[in-house]
Structure formats: structure tokens, C-alpha cells
Amino acid sequence: MTKHDKIIKYIKNLKVGSKISVRQLAQELNVSEGTAYRAIKDAQLKGLVSTIPRIGTIRIEQTDGENIEKLTYAEVVNIVDGSVMGGTAGLHKPLKKFLIGAMEVNEMRQYIEPGDLLIVGNRKEAQLLSLTMGAAVLVTGGFKADDDVVRLADEKGMPLITSPYDTFTVATIINRAIFTRLLRKDVVRVRDVMVKNPYYLDERATVGDWRKLVRATRHSRFPVVNGDGEVIGIVTTNDVADLKDEVSIREVMTKDPITVGPETPVAHAAHLMVWEGIELIPVVEDKKLLGVISRQDAIKAFRSLSLQPQIAETVDSLIMDHFNVFKTERGVRLQGKTGPVMLSPYGVPSHSSLINALVNAGINAFRSKRRPEVIPDSFTVYFSGSVQLDEEIEINADIIEIGRRSGKVEVSLIGGGDLIAKAIMSVKVLGR
């Protein structure tokens, strides 16, 4: 285990809410401050710690895939450029919901619950009520709280935060942060579909060992790991064809194979498999083998995802909401109006939004032919005009070539009866 791994393990075992520092880690684990600093930054990326100005770095509850939309109070401090006046012991806690204190104090009582965050201005009664009821307080406008409010925050272990922004801005920032997390939650990750504890070969294995594993598992592609469990290669049928059983796997394996991490989006892994012409990718963390993802795993994930409603909107969905899709003999036809979400800074639909619609039309054309797992390979477009806001437009996507592994589609955009744009898109088919 490397020094970096030891520090990460040490941080994971710390009690949530514990404060840590570079100097403390360096002294306790007998490592350099540079090594400790890099490990803390890595722990921050993993969601293990949060660093707050004038407070320091604290161990926080690691957010998992099921709870990703929840922010900790420590994260709120950072995103609103705030500072902590009291209740630092509770910074690691996740907030359940936030509410704005724009009502009479007596009315607030029925809405505040333990674990909430009350966003309020310089209103002492509201601040005291929230803390008494076990909820944190974010004071807007840069105001400071009175000493007795700070003491109550420390006593309850609930954060008392101040931010220079007004109430509306603070609420918008927090809401956007939660929305961003919801988008991330929608993304299917490799960890969601990978095969855990996969079959693999030790670096000391031979071609004979590979053949035994093939007979036992009916698989033909295996990662190769060293004594520390780190992936150092991958071996397939092509590597060992016609070789004798005693030949070492190290001599024939593909060294330094393409790998992905557990948080990698499945779509990216699928793109790698298509572009690199491979069927299996090892999933690693700190170089150690966690699992494998195959082309078929990615296909199943895409098919499952296509049947599920999305809980958060993306740019694609916002643009495609403006169109109705109709199946045609050669592909699809989209009909709709340009909307405000498509506007450029100059008040007309931007070329980028129109290209987005053209690409999605092309993808929908292949989906209409029961080829749902396609990846755009190239896209060439020519514009010969422009369209206005709220203008009726039509997009026709006609497939001109479709094969087992690739295809081409011609896409045209018509507005006001005139041809506005024409494009040719080629795609790679992930598989069946």
C-alpha cells in the first residue's frame, strides 16, 4: 500500500466532523507535507472532506449514489461564499431542505424541521427559533449574529452561516447546486452496471491457465493483475491463438490496457469501446481491479435508460421539448417552434442549438429502425439561412446507409418553406 493509499484509508476511518490538517497528517503518518496535501485534495474530490475558509478541513459524510442530491452545510458555506459564525460541529451534516424566512416568526414554526436550513436576513427571533428547533441558519446580506445566537448555535451543534449575497441570490445558488446533483444522479455510471469481482489472471499465469479459465467460465477476455491487485494487462483469444500452454501470459498480454473508474459515465466507456474496437474494459480504482464492463453491459444500460423518465432536464431535453417526432419511411420528421431556450445573445436561435436539434433528429432516425445504441462519429453541416424566435420549423432525418456497425443519415432543416440547413451525420452502432 502506498503512502497516499494509507492517508486516504486514515481519512476514511476518521469520525465524521473531525478536523484535519496537512501538518497533522504529516506528523501522525510520518509522511511529507506535500504527500499529505495531495492526499487531502484527492479526499476532497472523493467527497470525504470539505475545506472551509477560516475553519479548515473537516471529515464529512461521503455522499453515495442514492443520496447525491443532498448538500452538507459545509458545501453550502463554500457555494455561497459564506463564513461560519457558530455551530461548526454540525458542518458535516446534510441539510434536508432549505426554506426562506419571509413570514412572521410564529408562522415559521410549522414549517421548520430538524436538519433544515433557514435562509433569513437580520432577524434575531427567527434565527433563535430555527436553532432551537434543530435547524441551521444562513444569514444573508453579510449581517453578523448576536453573541447569544452564536452561543445557541454552538450549544445545538447546528451551523450559523453568514453570506454577503441577498436572500434570492442565496436560494438560487443552493437550488442550482441541488439541480446539478440531480443531473449527475441521472447519469448512469460504470459502477451501476459493471461486473464486480470478475475473473482475472495473475501475472504468473500461463496460456494453459487462460485455457482452463475459458473452459470454466466460457469467457475469453480477462484482466491480468500483479501481486498488489493492480491491472497491468488484458488477454484475449487473439493474443494466445496457437500458442503453447507453457507460454507466460506476461509475454502475450496487451500491456497498459484502457481502463475506466467506477464513476465514469457508461456512455463514455461505450464510446471508448467503439472507437478503440474493444469488447471489455477493466474498472479500476487506484489502479486496483474492481470489476469489468463489457460492450453488452453498456448496451443493456442504454436500453434500460431509454425506458426510464429523467428527473432533471438537460440541454438536449429542453431543446427537444419544442418538437413533435413523427416516424417516416426513411427515418423521422420533427415539427415544432424555436423557443427562448434556443436563443443566442443576439435574440435569434443559435447555430449550436439548431445543430443540437439536427443531431438529435439523426439519432432518432436510427432509433426508429430499432438501432437505439448509436454514437455520432462525424457531423458536417451547411447553413444557407437563419430562423426567428417562435418560427415554425421542420427537420427531416433520412437514413441513407445502415449496417451492422455503422450508418449515415441526411438531415435537413426547413423554415418558412426555405431550406435553412443541411447536414450529413455518420454514426457507429454500439451493437445489438
Assigned CATH class of the largest domain? Alpha Beta
The figure for the number of domains is 4
Category from helices, strands and their pairing: alpha+beta
Radius of gyration: 28 Å
What's the main sheet like? Answer: 6 strands, antiparallel
- For CATH, the homologous superfamily of the largest domain is named as HprK N-terminal domain-like
CATH-scheme architecture of the largest domain? 3-Layer(aba) Sandwich
Our estimate of the beta-strand percent is 25-35%
> What gross morphology would you assign?
flat
CATH topology of the largest domain: Udp-n-acetylmuramoylalanyl-d-glutamate--2,6- Diaminopimelate Ligase, Chain: A, domain 1
What does this structure look like?
This protein has a six-stranded antiparallel beta sheet with strand order 16-17-19-20-21-18, covered by helices on one side. A five-stranded mixed beta sheet has the order 4-8-7-6-5, with helices on both faces. By secondary structure, the protein is α+β, with helices and mostly antiparallel strands. It folds into four domains: 1-60, Orthogonal Bundle (Arc Repressor Mutant, subunit A); 63-186, Udp-n-acetylmuramoylalanyl-d-glutamate--2,6- Diaminopimelate Ligase, Chain: A, domain 1; 191-303, CBS-domain, CATH 3.10.580.10; 315-429, Hotdog Thioesterase (Thiol Ester Dehydrase, Chain A). The protein contains 16 helices and 21 strands. The protein has helices spanning 3-12, 22-29, 33-45, 73-79, 105-108, 124-132, 147-156, 167-186, 190-193, 207-217, 237-240, 249-252, 266-276, 295-306, 315-320, 351-367; strands spanning 19-20, 49-52, 56-59, 83-86, 98-100, 117-120, 136-139, 160-162, 195-196, 201-202, 222-225, 231-235, 254-255, 280-285, 288-294, 323-327, 331-337, 374-383, 392-402, 406-415, 418-429.
